[in-house]
Amino acid sequence: MDTKYCEVDKNNISADIMAAAGEIIRKGGLVAFPTETVYGLGGDALNAESSKKIYAAKGRPSDNPLIVHISNMDDLYRIAEYVPPAAEMLAREYWPGPLTMIFPKKDIVPYETTGGLGTVAVRFPSHPVAQAFIEQSGGFVAAPSANLSGRPSPTTAEHVREDLSGRIDMIIDSGQCNIGLESTIVDFTQDTPMMLRPGFVSEEMLRQILGKVDKDPAVFGETITDALPKAPGMKYRHYAPKGKLSIVSGQAEAVAEFIAERIRNKKDGVKIGVITCSDKKEMYKGADFIGDIGDRNDEYTIASRLYDLLRACDEYGVDEIYSEEFDTPQLGLAIMNRLIKAAGHTVIKV
Ligand code: TXA
Ligand code: MG
Question: What's the average model confidence in pLDDT over 105-122?
Fold first, then answer.
């Protein structure tokens, strides 16, 4: 398949390109599009065949449900059977934005879209190109992140091209995604709302609106349990680079010294990559790849660069990757959740 590639300026959105993209979706095709979190791979959420195509293009297991993207609040009530007042309060504060909420689904949403579940995940993104695209597409766009299953989520159109070129109809390029980590997911189908995936909207921000919030113990527990996460996607190894990634945890100086020592003593033929804040990168001369994730106090930049650096480790073909820990106030939980999964839970304490 020939994948059409279109650049769209988010401050001056081409109506022609949006109309063409919308037509592809309405005819059952697939279009990758930008959002404020990561690029999404869109198909018509109300068309079972489109959802099947999404799974096939990504190589994604079909029991892993898709998020339905909408472009206005009214459309929520066309696909959700029941929306509790607490969810409406949260929507008033954080929609449009990097927040996904789960509700019992209405019949018009096919089980192919929800991975066989009776619930539907819904998000109203804030990115202007995403909104225009959803509107032109009929209003309901099912979209997982636009990466091949198992690879880091795409934060640029170039990442999408690497993974999905030739497998989908169109890629809309609007530059780099602002946030760079997937949306926060909150499940409203239980008595107390439950956070299933951390993101830009932090636990503290949720508590301020909702009061009590539970966290899925299978995702947030201190120890790894055998319990299955409630968001099926969270059980898969994810975001993973090809090299062996280890997180080095401890006081910043000790961490830097440990990684520097690994570089000094590396075996012939072994390539080492490091993911580090700017202030420590001088310590790692001699590494085959030094991924500068930005200023230690700038958590927005750290979040937005993480996936690009994980992909860069693959490009440099490094065998071992050492990452510092990024335990920042608002986004730390989300950043470390992705990093720990990418590392397959390998944490070296120093
Ligand atoms: O920021 C985002 O959310 C991006 C952009 C494109 O919007 N999308 C995204 O989709 O991250 P995806 O498919 O990569 O992740 C969706 C997650 C998966 O872990 C999935 O299992 C969970 O949401 N999920 C979807 N529907 C669900 C449901 N009904 N119940 C529980 N978990 C659900
Ligand atoms: Mg994903």
Answer: 98
